[in-house]
Amino acid sequence: MRFPTVGALALSSIVGTSFAWVKNVPIDTSTLDELYAEALTEDGNLVVVSGGDAGVRGLALKTAWAARFPKIALNFTVDLSKYHDSRIDRAYYANKETVDVAILQTLHDFQRWKEEGRLLFYKPPTFADLYSGETDLDGAFLPVNIGSFGTFSWDSTYVSDSEAPTSYADLLDPKWKGKIVATYPNDDDAIGYLFSIIIEKYGFEWLDAIAQQDVQWVRGTASPGFVMQDNHNNATVSASGSSPKGRVLSFTTSPPNETYFKTAQPAAPEQHMAWAQTAAAFASTKRPKTAKLFLAWATSNEYQGVLTAGTARKSLDIGGTVYTSNTTQTSQFRQFMQDRKRVEWWRFQYETTLGTAQGLSPLVYYP
Q: Hey, what's the signal peptide range on this chain (predicted)?
């Protein structure tokens, strides 16, 4: 068993860092078919954990993998990133590691794991085309897609395009009282960062005011979309455990793919948040060839070219929207996550006004 004493952690950090910076990993020039053939010399399995707050978040990836690599069984588990990283660390200290690849929103974990010598260094064929600001230049971790929060979404059955808010200040209009559903900012660091951006512009008066808007606060970023969907379908109780009645507007979700949902980014100079969902393979993997295949495929033209969310590839980011839209620069969320004192400070500001997050994990409601 590994014991996470301060001394041991400090030593592992020093050793990990010293080796991390002398890695000279070449960019892999293999095709996906060649990597697949190599992976088939292993045991035909792969364990991947992915950050998300609803099981449906992983369906498209699992389906695409099974179609492309049918001889390799993908064990793909979706849960909140903050729970995945805890389990990964516990398994490491117990010397019982089973995860081959992690795809997470907790971006601070990857640098720490690199410094501890726990990541497998690999540069897939598309490495040079990944956004360098979101990629570890030694090949320890890389972005697989760009996500964002802060876009307004509404049920067009009840809200016309002309009525929809264009700024976060608009959310304070009395007409929205009892109609907003939003994610607790003290339960999700990405939403916490979004709220920090808003408050830095409008002050804590904005937080105090929205707390008076009878917002339905829920855990998880998928939950607001499902609550609005339940309201549309006249459900008396939503899967979040509360009545969805009247909830027609959110700014912390990507709603289900229904024609009645409309979305719009806040108008400039308003800003919202974006981040690079990041992936890495672990040095402890017993399937390094299969793990490399996964990273190569996840950053390939085949997979990146059909993403409905933002691509991590420069050549596929038509118009350069990752860095030219009015969203906050993607890299700023990575910096925010590295500063855990700052994250904690904001979390307690939200709890002071909104109280602690209530309810079960959203994966209980949306497995």
A: 1-20
Place of tokens 């907790």: 106
Please state the length of the chain: 367
With H, G, I as helix, E, B as strand and everything else as coil, classify residue 102.
strand
Query: How many angstroms separate the CA atoms of 191 and 343, rounded?
Result: 11
Q: Which two tokens stand for residue 281?
A: 């393979």
For 28, the token pair is: 């892999």
Q: Which domains does the chain have, with CATH numbers?
A: 6-148+275-323 (3.40.190.10), 151-271+346-365 (3.40.190)
Report the alpha-carbon distance of residue 103 to residue 277 in Å, rounded: 7
**Residues 322-357: tens digit of each pLDDT:** 666 777 778 899 999 999 999 999 999 999 999 999
How far, in Å, are 158, 185, 225 from residue 154 at the CA level? 8, 20, 9
Residues near 250 by Cβ (< 8 Å), separated by ≥ 6? Answer: 152, 153, 154, 180, 181, 182, 224, 225, 228
* The token pair that represents 80 in the structure block: 């909140």
* Euclidean distance between CA atoms 206 and 215, whole angstroms: 13
Q: What residues does 102 pair with on adjacent strands?
A: 49, 280
Torsions phi, psi of 354, nearest 5?
Answer: -100, -15
